[in-house]
């Protein structure tokens, strides 16, 4: 018997499969929905966990701290508009011996190459017509000074005068109705009182990150001497052998003062400037809790002379002194360890004419107690030549008083006026040397033609360098004018005013080995 088994249809039917899946999913959903409804899950919408927002300490319990915090805010709001950022450029010289390969290519002999060294600091406006107070070391030897206000306005500045012996400088911008800082009295400052240090760390223009900053602290001490200015004067050929002229009577604070804050104001809680941020003591170069400011009384006295005369007319006694030690006080029968011990009297000086002697101890000036030798220097520096002062001394264990008419110090510093910068041609944008493109140079640089001029040297950190122009760039166009020679460059740049932006088209070497030098547009601002 022969049996026949029907052949089963084994072909896959996608429509039938999808239908089965859909029916299975729907059935599962309905079952799940029924279970969720039975247990009440569908009635519970998702809500985020509660977050506590109510104060955990009552305002009354922390009101003194809140008041102090608001005082900081009020002072910062009032003073910061008068604080400025100061950006400087200084020209240094280096020997171009490392460029001998390029010298052979361009036929340029070894030479000294100017190098632009940028710097920055802070200052504050002290008159609505643009006088600004800052540190000498912020603007010293600067060829160019630019000032930026909090609102973003920028000005070129000129040095009115500087005093390296106190690290004070006055600069001037052409402005009107400028926000002005109020000057207080450093004589009234007490150790332990709150102060704010305001400045600009120098990491960007107004509005950029880490630009204007405010820090708080207390006055840690007064009358500090660090010999910082002394060492600076020892390195200054204009003051060789005269480092004793340095006047250091710093206010010490634990308010944070970092790089770029030099020249900014230290203010009290009434918003009055009581010092100028000047220095830190640190083993690492960054703030470690020791900040120092020049007292505003001394700075104000120096500022007045710099504005009136362009230099400081400093009064002097004509004595060599040091601070009284415990041993000095015991040996000389002093009531306490304070004063300035006279170690020498210079001939022909006010001190000699008044009868001051070796071993005298100066205890007071015009009724104000002298604490140290630095304190005596500070008090005399606040006087003017021609002033008559009463000096209380101890001599041979007994108090006495002498009257001295002060005279002008024979050497009272230099007027450090910013030299006017007279750029010539390509130097104005920081291009030191240009050479015409010869067939040999074109071959070496793999150029398709001899059009344009080649940059043989640029000022490091100069305007062109900072925009990306380097050695071997080929300039073909400036201000839409074709460039075929260095004379063409001079003709164009001589018509560009300081502060204007000049457009330069140049083909510069690429960091991509497979990419040829392609023309690129560089917009460069001509220094003021």
Report on the structure:
With 528 residues, the chain is of the alpha+beta class. The protein has three domains: 75-309, Thrombin, subunit H; 315-408, Roll (Pdz3 Domain), CATH 2.30.42.10; 425-525, Pdz3 Domain. The protein is built from twelve helices and 28 strands. It has a seven-stranded antiparallel sheet with strand order 5-4-1-2-3-7-6. A six-stranded antiparallel barrel has the order 9-10-11-14-13-12. A hairpin with a 4-residue loop joins strand 12 and strand 13 (272-280). The longest helix is centred in the N-terminal third of the chain and has 26 residues, at 14-39. It is flat, with a radius of gyration of 36 Å. 36% of the residues are buried.
Question: What's the arrangement of secondary structure elements?
Answer:
Elements: H1 14-39, H2 63-79, E1 83-95, H3 100-106, E2 112-125, E3 131-134, H4 136-139, E4 144-148, E5 154-156, E6 158-163, E7 168-172, E8 182-183, E9 194-199, E10 213-224, H5 228-234, E11 250-253, E12 265-267, E13 272-280, E14 291-295, H6 296-309, E15 315-316, E16 319-323, H7 326-332, E17 340-345, H8 350-354, E18 361-365, E19 368-369, H9 373-381, E20 388-395, E21 398-405, E22 407-408, E23 431-436, H10 439-444, E24 453-458, H11 463-467, E25 474-478, E26 481-482, H12 486-493, E27 501-507, E28 519-525
Parallel strand pairs: 8-13
Antiparallel strand pairs: 1-2, 1-4, 2-3, 3-7, 4-5, 6-7, 9-10, 9-12, 10-11, 11-14, 12-13, 13-14, 15-22, 16-17, 17-18, 18-19, 18-20, 20-21, 23-24, 24-25, 25-26, 25-27, 27-28
